Amino acid sequence: MRGVVLHAPGDVRVEHRNDPAIIDPTDAIIRISATCVCGSDLWDYRGIHPVKDPMPIGHEYCGIVEEVGAEVTTIRPGQFVIGSFTASDNTCPHCLAGYQSSCEHRQYVGAGGAQAEALRVPLADGTLVATPGLPDDELLPSLLTASDVLGTGWFAAVAAGVRPGSTAVVVGDGAVGLLGVLSARQLGAERIIVMSRHESRQKLARVFGATDIVTERGDDGVAQIKELTAGLGADAVLECVGTGESFEQALRSARPGGGVGIVGLPHGVTVSGRDLFLSHVRVAGGPAPVRRFLPELIELIWEGRIDPGQVFDLALPLDRAADGYAAMDSRRAVKALLRP
Amino acid sequence: MRGVVLHAPGDVRVEHRNDPAIIDPTDAIIRISATCVCGSDLWDYRGIHPVKDPMPIGHEYCGIVEEVGAEVTTIRPGQFVIGSFTASDNTCPHCLAGYQSSCEHRQYVGAGGAQAEALRVPLADGTLVATPGLPDDELLPSLLTASDVLGTGWFAAVAAGVRPGSTAVVVGDGAVGLLGVLSARQLGAERIIVMSRHESRQKLARVFGATDIVTERGDDGVAQIKELTAGLGADAVLECVGTGESFEQALRSARPGGGVGIVGLPHGVTVSGRDLFLSHVRVAGGPAPVRRFLPELIELIWEGRIDPGQVFDLALPLDRAADGYAAMDSRRAVKALLRP
């Protein structure tokens, strides 16, 4: 089959790879209908995470089950399925508590490289969720977002504590931040302030439900947020970047008793215990337990109540994956969808 | 009047001070019935917080209202009252949200030095809570704890997310930690594990409801907690110390999806964003909004349902305040009560 392989920073190639095969009796093999490039793939692409050997890449996927192992009982060949980047048994205490990304038997699905024609998914029964039927082609982008970027934005909103009537701030206008806006809206936030400097992203944020845009950063950004919230700060802040600056921005944007949801893997972030303490702000988050939200997200998409697929502003055949990486790296594209 | 004055590290004196007087029309003057030495006073006593000029000290108090300002409407002379170390209007949005220690008009009551015969309390209506009548003498120690140390332990349990059936860990066996145990029990925790190496404190922890004691620290401490919690970690961890070691101990003792409540002012604590993120643990807390809990705590004490006053293992006349500081500094006493 064909699959994307990262050879070195900036060096993305689509090459022939061995077809995936069942290894464990709990595996499934999926024929990929759509996959995409994640902001976190850029950490590898940019060499911030060193790449030693040529590495299959990609961890967002949806598609049709081709084969299942002998112990798979709920997932069947022919079903259209979506799964998270973390394979989980969905039965251990951490899974039952809703933290499938801390599953006692978790495996990183992306190790197999989801930007490909086919993918092996471990722990298929606990990881994959089937749609009610085979989806129309135009639903594919939205369904694909549920695999990671929508589930992650949704978790940001949940972890931040968005409730009906909340005032929310979204730090970050990447795909996760934009879908954080959509999620905050779905969870009932009345006012949603997005910190963004890019006109096209501001526009999409408004489509997804943003009510206010703040272009300032740092002290000025905090002052703007305070001005928009009667001097109080926001009830819930979605931190969708993962840098020291963005974390500080988020912490300072929340009101005492408010919450910050962190979903971007922190790079070089150290938090002052004293700042955290004096802020009276609750911090929660981590690797999104996407599996927790998949049934609900699939239902919302299937019924046409949300259209998160709009986050893809570039769609390419898999063979042009390198163009998708380059476009996202230079911020010409928010998110690139790839069709095998 | 007589009052405690800290002159320099280790130099605590009881001296003549001017009687407090009404300054603002929202003030009250209280005749102190009982006061005490707080673990946080030791930061000053030990010179960790530098003392420039002789400083009246103490911020825990209960007593009888002597005089009120012209704008005080709910508090009356003759009432027995308890207040927090933070004066709050109890009407601003932060107060209404339950974060009175972030009140828009907050003042530090301790600036007046509560270890004295009398004390000026600003914002009396929003700060003080009257008991149903004049208390018997034996209730004084318990009522005094509500002023800070019990309210702070209670907030640790609330911020950590203790619920009926929870497994809780308490890091720290000082007065706050011990009353954190009592609080976790009251909030319904079924299993309460205390990290303590001091036999007398372990004993009191058991009186307050601890079910297990862990004497190990660091990796061994975490291993013990995991062993006691089926490998999972605790639902709720009360961090009642405020050092880097205690914070790390707390974070590593909680299960994914669990919470850490921080109530000890952090000294030199920096938190790795990545550790926090990967832990899946929620962190909340800060300066305890004691005022939120005062009515409930007073009721529990008044009805004899809790006896937090046992945390005082030393009671001295005010004139011997220096002995109280020395006993706590050397950990010979958990907490010293002072009677003017």
UniProtKB/TrEMBL annotation, chains A, B:
Keywords tagged on the record: Metal-binding, Oxidoreductase, Zinc
Cofactor(s) listed: Zn(2+)
* Cross-referenced InterPro entries: ADH-like_C (IPR013149), ADH-like_N (IPR013154), ADH_Zn_CS (IPR002328), ER (IPR020843), GroES-like_sf (IPR011032), NAD(P)-bd_dom_sf (IPR036291)
Q: Which PROSITE patterns match?
A: ADH_ZINC
Q: What molecular function terms (GO) are annotated for this protein?
A: oxidoreductase activity; zinc ion binding
Residue ranges of every copy of the Enoyl reductase (ER) domain listed in the record: 7-338
**What family does the entry list?**
Belongs to the zinc-containing alcohol dehydrogenase family.
Tell me what this protein is called.
Zinc-dependent alcohol dehydrogenase family protein
